[in-house]
Amino acid sequence: MPSATSHPDKLDRTVIVTGLVVVAGMIMVVLDTTIVNVALDSLSTDLGAPLSTTQWVVTGYLLAVALVIPLTGWAMDRFGPRTTWITSVSLFVAGSALCAAAWSVESLVAFRILQGLGGGMLLPAGQAIITKAAGPRRLGRAMSILGIPMLLGPVLGPVVGGLLVEYANWQWIFIVNVPVGILAIGLAFWKLPDGGARADAGRLDVRGLVLLSAGLAALLYGLSRADSQGGFGAWDVLGWLLGGGTALTLYAWHSLRQGTASIIDVRLFTDRRFAAGTVAVFLVAGAMFGGMLLLALYYQTVRDEGPLTAGLLLAPQGVGAVVAMVVGGRLSDRFGAGYVVLAGIALALLGTLPFTGIGVDTSYAWLSVALFVRGVGLGAVMMPAIAAAYTRLGEDVVTRAAPTLSAMQQLGASLGSAVLVAALTQRFGALLAAQGTQGPDGGAEGFSTLPPAAMAAAGPLMADAFGVAFWITFACTAVIVVPALFLPRHGASVRSATSG
C-alpha cells in the first residue's frame, strides 16, 4: 500500500474501503434492532399474541447476542476475521428471511434468535477488522467510519420502522435486510483481505464460554425485566442480576487461572487505556441509549406524537453525531482522545441540561438545538473512547479485546435504559400518589395504558418525572470525566515516537 507508506497518518483507500464494507453489514443490524421495537404492536396484532409474548421477539434476540459475543474472538483467531464476518452476516440474512416468513410468534422468536447469533458477532468482528487495517496512528478516524451505524441507527431506526409499518406490513422490517446483507457479503468476498487464521488459536475454552455467555445473558435478561417492570426490587429481576454477577465473577477467577487460554483474558484490564476506554464506553452507552429511550417516550406520551414523528424529532441528535464523527476522529489522532472526550462530555452535558426542565409545551425548535449539541457531544465521546482502548494493544489480542468492548457497550445500554425507566416510573408514581391517583403498571409500556383523559391531566406531572430522569442522565454523563482523565493526551505520532 504505497499511500499508507508515503502518508502513514492519512486514511488510505484500503482502510476506507474496509470500513465501508464493515458498515454495509453493521447498518442493517443496528437499524433492525430499533425498527423491530417500533413494530411490536403490529406484530402482536397480526400474529394474534399478547404483547408480553411478542416482547420475546426483542428479548430472544438480545439473549442470543449475549451468548455469542464471547465466542467471536476465538472464532476470528481460529477461522480468520473475514470468514467470521461473512458467516455472521450470512446468519443474520438467513434469520431475516425466515423472520419474514414466520407463521406464528413462536416461529418468529426462534428465527430472531438465529438473527441474534449472527448480529452479536458483527460489532466485535467489525471493530477488530478496522483496528487491524488502520493501525494505531489512524485509529480515531477509522473508528469514526464505524460510528456511522452505531450512532445513526438508533435515530433512523424508528423513522424507517414507522414508515414500513405505516405504509407496508411488518414482514418488510425483515425483508429489507436481505438485499443489504447480500451486498455486504459480496463486498466482503471482494474487498476484505483473506487470512488471519492462527494455527495457535488453541482449543475453545468451553468452561469459560459457558460462564461468560451465561453471565452476560442473565444480566441482560434481568435488566430487560427491570426495564419492563420499572424497577429492580422484584425477585425475578434481582435473581437474574445476582446469578449473572456470580457467573461473571466465576469467569474472572477462571480467566486469571487460564490466562491467554481463556476465551477473553481479563488481564487486558491491566492496560490502563483499555480499562479507561472500556469504562467510558460503558457509561456513554448508558447515557446515549437510555437518553434516547427517554426522548422517544417523552415525544410519544407527553406530546402525543406517533413513532414516525418521534423518530424525526430525534434526528438532530444523529446529525450532531455525524458532525462529531467528521472532526472527532481526526482531532483524536492528532491531539489525543483525552482532550476530545473531555470536550465531548462538556457538549453532551450542555445538550442534556435543557431536558432537565422539560415541560408539556417546550419548543420543539429549542429541543432540536439541544439534541444537536447533545449528539455532537456523545459522538465525540463514543468513538474516540473505543479507539483509545485499542491504542496500546498488540494485534494478537485485538480479536479478544473487541468482544469485551461490545459486551460492555451492550450492558451499559441495557443498564442505562433500565435505571432511567425505573427513575421515571417511580417519580411519576410518587407524584400521582401524592394526588391520590394510582400510577401506571410496569415500566415504559405502562405509560401507554393510561387513558387519554388521565394523560391530559397528568401531563405536567409526567414532564416533571422526565426532568428527574434527565438529571440522572446528566449525572451519568458527568461521571465519564473520571475514565476520560486516563485517556491519552497526545497524538498518535507522538505515541509511536515515544514507544519506539
SSE arrangement:
Blueprint: H1 2-6, H2 13-38, H3 40-46, H4 51-54, H5 56-68, H6 71-79, H7 81-100, H8 105-134, H9 139-167, H10 172-175, H11 177-191, H12 206-229, H13 235-258, H14 272-302, H15 307-335, H16 337-352, H17 364-390, H18 395-434, H19 452-479, H20 481-484, H21 492-499
Helix pairs in contact: 2-8, 2-9, 2-11, 5-8, 5-12, 6-7, 6-8, 6-18, 7-8, 7-11, 8-9, 8-18, 9-15, 9-17, 12-13, 12-18, 14-15, 14-17, 14-18, 14-19, 15-16, 15-17, 16-17, 16-19, 18-19
Describe the model.
- α9 packs antiparallel against α15 (307-335), α15 packs antiparallel against α16 and α16 (337-352) packs antiparallel against α17.
- The protein has three domains: 7-199, Up-down Bundle (Growth Hormone, Chain: A); 205-262; 270-500, Growth Hormone, Chain: A (Up-down Bundle), CATH 1.20.1250.
- 79% of the residues lie in helices and 0% in strands.
- The relative contact order is 0.13.
- It is an all-alpha fold and 500 residues long.
- It has helices at 2-6, 13-38, 40-46, 51-54, 56-68, 71-79, 81-100, 105-134, 139-167, 172-175, 177-191, 206-229, 235-258, 272-302, 307-335, 337-352, 364-390, 395-434, 452-479, 481-484, 492-499.
- The model is unreliable at 1-8 and 493-500 (pLDDT under 50).
- It starts with a helix and ends with a helix.
- It is globular, with a radius of gyration of 22 Å.
Strand content: under 5%
- Give the count of structural domains: 3
| CATH superfamily placement of the largest domain | MFS general substrate transporter like domains
- Mean pLDDT over the full residue set: 81
The CATH architecture name of the largest domain reads: Up-down Bundle
Largest sheet: none
Radius of gyration: 22 Å
Give the helix proportion (percent range): over 70%
Shape: globular
Low-confidence parts: 1-8, 493-500
User: What's the total number of strands?
Assistant: 0
CATH fold-level name of the largest domain: Growth Hormone, Chain: A
Q: What's the helix-strand series? A: HHHHHHHHHHHHHHHHHHHHH
Number of helices: 21
The CATH class of the largest domain is: Mainly Alpha
**Distance between termini?**
22 Å
Structural category is: mainly alpha
